[in-house]
Amino acid sequence: MQELHIDPGVPLASLAPLTTLRLGGPAKRLVTATTDDEVIAAVREADESGTPLLIVAGGSNLVIADEGFDGTVLRIATRGFDLTGSRLELAAGENWSKAVARTVEAGLAGVECLAGIPGSAGATPIQNVGAYGQEVSSTLTEVVAYDRRRGEVVTLTNAECDFSYRHSRFKADPAGHVVLRVRFTLEDAEGLSAPIRYAETARLLGVEAGDRVPAAQAREAVLRLRAGKGMVLDPDDHDTWSAGSFFTNPILDETAFAAFVDRVRERLGPDVAPPAFPAGEGRTKTSAAWLIDKAGFTKGYGQGPARISTKHTLALTNRGSATTADLLALAREVRDGVHEAFGVTLTNEPVMVGCAL
Ligand SMILES: Cc1cc2nc3c(=O)[nH]c(=O)nc-3n(C[C@H](O)[C@H](O)[C@H](O)COP(=O)(O)OP(=O)(O)OC[C@H]3O[C@@H](n4cnc5c(N)ncnc54)[C@H](O)[C@@H]3O)c2cc1C
């Protein structure tokens, strides 16, 4: 077999510069892979030697402990954008938001409302990224991945990825696969977007939910809405030194939802109804941002170096000198405060490395 190049790597004093939160302690070794073969070689080497392995791409969904990571950190920096008709294949390391812009320029629909989501294409299936009425699971057809247990490259169909709200088989089993390539089939709607599903986007565009608009307009509207909430990366704006939404929107069964509505009425008045969206089979999704705000954790909440964003209650941010311990203390305070107020337990959306809520 041909000998593959493995970057010998370098010790890293701090993982903070690799994450959008700018948090995380040292790592034993940082390896950067720019081809699929280099990714596979580095993963094999770690697995065969029993070395703990952390995959990092854009670092926009990671909370890493102040103690750091005692193993190999593999940074995915592969490149590849291949558009044939309406079929798109992206290398894992491609910048997601730039790839979205290119599909819109090519007149294709299906991911235009996912513009502005930071990070890499390869991470999009991990938590089935979604925003403004779209999720990658609606257009993703296949994931090409290195199966760490079988030691071979496999192609997983959409159904085999077990997608659900901000979840997939990859998030459930982080040691299972490393994503190498992601394939999508987009819609050629002659430059129009997919039907606009999200009320806020429809309002800004001056259309009804379900209408189509030029895909470029849909993308720009989403970018405007996101920027207003501090959800587009800007190194000069500490409101974007976050991992995006820190908590997922809770999904409640009928009994839990009824108890929650009672708590809302007791606390906020008999006429107050919480946000409620059907989430399949007697289940209802409510809004984590609303819960946090109504529990008293308003925009800008916090005294220390970790605070709630001044633009969105769902983003916990590093104001410049925070540690992961500071951020987790704030996250626990918010989680516990929401539970005390409404009996609903919030769950973290970002991946925790060496730490937990
Ligand atoms: C300002 C801001 C706004 C955001 N808005 C949204 C939003 O609207 N919707 C949304 O869904 N998310 C959002 N996010 C979260 C984040 O951008 C996404 O989850 C994104 O897909 C993470 O990509 P990444 O490359 O940064 O992944 P990383 O943070 O580097 O990694 C995240 C996880 O995926 C794993 N991983 C990464 N690449 C691979 C790979 N190739 N193979 C296997 N595992 C891999 C990592 O090990 C880790 O567990 C936001 C984040 C920020 C900072």
From TrEMBL:
Reactions the enzyme catalyzes: UDP-N-acetyl-alpha-D-muramate + NADP(+) = UDP-N-acetyl-3-O-(1-carboxyvinyl)-alpha-D-glucosamine + NADPH + H(+)
EC number(s) on file: 1.3.1.98
Reported cofactor(s): FAD
Coarse class of the protein's main subcellular location: cytoplasm
One Gene Ontology cellular component: cytosol
Its job: Cell wall formation.
Protein name, per record: UDP-N-acetylenolpyruvoylglucosamine reductase
Species this chain originates from: Streptomyces albus
